[in-house]
Amino acid sequence: MVMTYRELLKAKAAELAEQGVENSGFDCGELLGKALMLDCRSAEFRLRLDDSADKAVSAAFEELCKRGAQGEPLQYIIGEWEFCGLPFKVGRGVLIPRQDTETLVELAVNKYKNTDSITLIDLCTGSGCIAIALEKQLDCHRVIGVEHSQEAAEFFSENVKLNCSSAELITADVLDDSTPDRLPDADLIVCNPPYLTADDMAALQREVSHEPAKALYGGEDGLDFYRGVTRLWKNKLKEGGTLIYEIGAGQEDEVMGILIQHGFTQVRCRRDAAGINRCVLGIYDP
């Protein structure tokens, strides 16, 4: 007997749940949408659910679900994910945009929404999601992303095209002493650096382990990039410029301390939607 898409979706979600996939119902909806080449939130998708399942579509859906059962992140399988209402291409070699990081964007927008023609630098830019989201919401003269990974840089370039962005890319190591010399002075520097500790890396969720370790590991205590970036990049800020970091849970005191030690003032942290301190901000006015 031929299943409907609704029955197929229900059966596969139950199967993946038994295999330990969290949020299997949500994931399977997204994967069926990909197999049907439809947005799973659209009216057209909902109308198709009671149709008899096509063999080719069912086979494609099955292959997508196998990848999910093996621990591959949903976002990699889909190949695109939303951040701040914008689409971003993602895949192996680049960090997946997360809702937590939208807190950094909101903080920057609140700080600079009434400022004209700013220069923005996004360090460890990855997919470019922060840089491009801020470009769309602020009056920017220049937006520059700095990324060391060639794989991630390729996704950045794709996302610039996808979102009709003018963001520029500098392929360089943000911790190299010579890299800041390649960029102009900035009103705002933002950074979502690798910040997981050695213990965090040893206990990664299966899906997270598919993401590039170099985008996750921040040294034994998770703070290597905060120390290095603050030291190297503070002098690229214009007088009264702002540095905003995303941080890991529980890192606020250490990161705020690093900024204060380097002469930043008005240092404070900001909670995300879950109530976790997610960002640290400081003003540099030497």
Task: Assign a percent range to the helix content.
Answer: 25-40%
Q: What sequence of helices (H) and strands (E) makes up the elements?
A: HHHHHEEHEHEHEEHHEHEE
SS content category: alpha/beta
Give Rg in angstroms. 21 Å
**Average of per-residue pLDDT values:** 95
Unreliable residue stretches? none
SS elements, strand count: 9
Q: What proportion strand?
A: 15-25%
Give the N-terminus to C-terminus distance in angstroms.
74 Å
Shape, please? elongated
The main sheet orders its strands as: 5-4-3-6-7-9-8
Question: Would you give an account of this structure?
Answer:
It is a single chain. The protein is 39% helix and 20% strand. By secondary structure, the protein is of the alpha/beta class. It starts with a helix and ends with a strand. 40% of the residues are buried. Strands 5-4-3-6-7-9-8 form a seven-stranded mixed β-sheet, sandwiched between helices. Strands 1-2 form a two-stranded antiparallel ribbon. The chain contains eleven helices and nine strands. The chain has helices at residues 5-18, 24-36, 43-48, 55-69, 74-78, 102-112, 129-137, 150-162, 198-202, 224-233, 252-261; strands at 80-83, 86-89, 118-123, 140-147, 168-171, 186-191, 237-246, 264-271, 277-284. Helix 1 packs across helix 2 (24-36), helix 1 (5-18) runs parallel beside helix 4 (55-69) and helix 2 (24-36) packs across helix 4 (55-69). The mean pLDDT is 95.
Topology of helices and strands:
Blueprint: H1 5-18, H2 24-36, H3 43-48, H4 55-69, H5 74-78, E1 80-83, E2 86-89, H6 102-112, E3 118-123, H7 129-137, E4 140-147, H8 150-162, E5 168-171, E6 186-191, H9 198-202, H10 224-233, E7 237-246, H11 252-261, E8 264-271, E9 277-284
Parallel strand pairs: 3-4, 3-6, 4-5, 6-7
Antiparallel strand pairs: 1-2, 7-9, 8-9
